[in-house]
């Protein structure tokens, strides 16, 4: 079947070729393309075909832009090797859809003769899944090319379902599935906005991390999503579903950079393992979702609360008893524990540390970038880190002492005086988040300051960030960037001011931010043709 794979490559490229053709004035034009993330791909396949359809293969890597992986979806393409992997996945998924185990549930019609072409049945299936996979109805040409492919393969194999398999596989390998293709239409004032189907995708991938459901596609088809009240109604419906936790989980994981690779030296930290790493990630996401979505409390309390959820592996790291039968249980640290919200959970402390020691610099840089949208420049390539790395220096026993000695270099001081102070407030926690009061026998000094405000320790840091207006503003900017595919670093106050105001007025409740964000016309705005990428019009 290798020639068929070649045909799939050819068919998959037809949509992009069509997008470059000119169309009549006033027709929708291609405004942008955003490559599906791995979770978006997997969730879409599960929602369209069922959770029992296996997805196995290699996904193209993302790249963090403006603090978010999602921002790279608008600028990254697919390599030839990656496209081959996606095509292999498409063929495997389509094969499962039409096999004897699944076809009764997933194929809505039966061919008149299972050994002969049936264009009516094939056309029905292609139209059904084309709408779901492309997140819009297929054009006549798009449908016809797949029906022809199914016909030709059926003739060669004497198997209707073999032909249908490759018709479906060509949809799954097409750019219009692998990328969220967004189309724009002109407004009366000369500005451009996304059409109904593109709006449906923005809402669904933001709130559910998956493809639009049938109800959302119907709202796009009948024009409901062109009206503010229609958008509000669908936003409320999506948020009323427990699946909104999936969408926010994906955003929170991106926001907190939970994809960062963690390696710990087992000689120094024998308690740390893959089980601990996975549990730590889940603790952070679980506690965030519970506070912000389930209990609908102030986002800023994430930085000060001592409430969390733990399991047995985490209890060993935290040094607390675990006398429970359940896998996960709510837990509240004591006031004298030094803990303060997600900043002192194992996740953040271990992500931004070295394999064999803590790192105030890495933690400070992460705090400034993630929570305040104030990234720190990368150090020059020729910086000498020998003083900081020498943990056996008898004269410089603590990391604070080593950093102060390192920062005497003027080249290093500019960045270290910016990031190190707040990172030093977390020095009571080692590289995997265990509490400590001394380093190499010397007491730890966790005093610090942020924008002129002095404080001590993680609890002081948590309160300082809690009361810093840059934190909720940064969070809102990144949610806007996450939803639109923009670079958060380039999002300007006019773009986020209105929904940040609504966020503040709600007492910093995330559901209120989501509603204000999706109600803002800028969330669905499209650049004018001269500034669009790609700028050429597209056939629909």
Main beta sheet strand tally, sense and closure: 4 strands, antiparallel
The radius of gyration is: 26 Å
By DSSP (H or I, 4+ residues per run), the number of helices equals 24
Identify the overall geometry. globular
- Biggest sheet, spatial arrangement of strands: 1-2-3-10
> What gap, in angstroms, lies between the N and C termini?
31 Å
Beta strand count: 10
Mean pLDDT: 89
Low-confidence stretches: 1-24, 532-540
Q: Percent of residues in helical segments?
A: 40-55%
Provide the structure class: alpha+beta
β-strand percent reads 5-15%
Descriptive labels:
alpha+beta, 24 helices, 10 strands, four-stranded antiparallel sheet, disordered N terminus, globular
Can you walk through the features of this model?
- This protein is of the alpha+beta class and 540 residues long.
- It has 24 helices and ten strands.
- The chain has helices at residues 2-12, 14-19, 38-49, 80-98, 103-106, 119-134, 140-157, 160-172, 175-178, 196-207, 214-221, 228-240, 244-255, 274-294, 312-318, 346-351, 360-372, 386-389, 399-406, 410-424, 457-466, 470-484, 493-505, 510-519; strands at 29-35, 179-186, 192-194, 307-310, 329-332, 438-439, 442-443, 447-450, 453-456, 525-526.
- The strands form four sheets. A four-stranded antiparallel β-sheet has the order 1-2-3-10. Strands 4-5 form a two-stranded antiparallel ribbon.
- The longest helix has 21 residues, at 274-294.
- The model is unreliable at 1-24 and 532-540 (pLDDT under 50).
């Amino acid at each position: 079947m290798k020639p068929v794979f070649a045909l799939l490559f050819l068919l998959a490229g037809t949509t992009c070729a069509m997008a470059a053709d000119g169309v009549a004035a006033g027709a929708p034009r291609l405004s942008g393309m955003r490559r599906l993330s791995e979770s978006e791909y997997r969730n879409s396949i599960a929602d369209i075909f069922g959770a029992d359809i296996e997805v196995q293969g290699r996904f193209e890597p993302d790249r963090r832009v403006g603090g978010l992986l999602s921002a790279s979806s608008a600028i990254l393409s697919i390599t030839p090797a990656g496209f081959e992997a996606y095509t292999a996945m498409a063929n495997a998924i389509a094969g499962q859809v039409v096999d004897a185990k699944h076809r009764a549930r997933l194929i809505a019609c039966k061919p008149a003769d299972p050994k002969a072409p049936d264009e009516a049945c094939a056309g029905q299936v292609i139209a059904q899944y084309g709408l779901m996979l492309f997140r819009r109805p297929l054009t006549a040409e798009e449908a016809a090319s797949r029906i022809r492919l199914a016909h030709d393969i059926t003739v060669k194999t004497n198997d209707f379902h073999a032909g249908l398999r490759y018709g479906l596989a060509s949809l799954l390998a097409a750019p219009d599935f692998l990328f969220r293709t967004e189309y724009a239409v002109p407004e009366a004032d000369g500005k451009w906005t996304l059409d109904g189907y593109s709006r449906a995708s923005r809402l669904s991938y933001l709130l559910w991390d998956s493809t639009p459901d049938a109800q959302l596609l119907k709202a796009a088809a009948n024009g409901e999503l062109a009206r503010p009240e229609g958008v509000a109604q669908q936003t409320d419906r999506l948020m009323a579903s427990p699946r909104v936790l999936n969408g926010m989980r994906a955003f929170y994981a991106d926001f907190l950079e939970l994809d960062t690779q963690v390696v710990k030296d087992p000689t120094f930290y024998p308690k740390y393992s893959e089980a601990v790493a996975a549990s730590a990630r889940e603790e952070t996401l679980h506690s965030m979702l519970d506070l912000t979505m389930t209990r609908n409390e102030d986002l800023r309390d994430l930085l000060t609360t001592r409430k969390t959820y733990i399991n047995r592996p985490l209890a060993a790291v935290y040094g607390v008893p675990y006398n429970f039968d359940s896998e996960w249980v709510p837990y509240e640290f004591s006031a004298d524990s030094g803990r303060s919200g997600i900043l002192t959970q194992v996740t953040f402390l271990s992500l931004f540390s070295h394999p064999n020691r803590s790192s105030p610099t890495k933690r400070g840089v992460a705090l400034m970038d993630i929570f305040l949208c104030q990234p720190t420049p990368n150090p020059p390539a020729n910086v000498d880190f020998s003083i900081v790395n020498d943990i056996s220096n008898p004269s410089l026993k603590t990391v604070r002492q080593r950093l102060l000695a390192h920062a005497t270099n003027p080249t290093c001081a500019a960045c270290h005086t910016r990031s190190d102070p707040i990172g030093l407030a977390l020095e009571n926690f080692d590289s995997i988040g265990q509490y400590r009061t001394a380093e190499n026998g010397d007491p730890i000094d966790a005093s610090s300051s942020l924008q002129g405000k002095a404080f001590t320790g993680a609890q002081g840091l948590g309160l300082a960030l809690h009361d810093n207006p840059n934190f909720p503003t940064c969070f809102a900017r990144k949610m806007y960037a996450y939803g639109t595919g923009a670079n958060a670093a380039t999002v300007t106050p006019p773009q986020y001011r209105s929904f940040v105001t609504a966020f503040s007025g709600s007492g910093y409740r995330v559901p209120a931010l989501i509603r204000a964000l999706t109600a803002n016309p800028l969330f669905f705005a499209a650049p004018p043709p001269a500034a669009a990428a790609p700028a050429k019009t597209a056939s629909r």
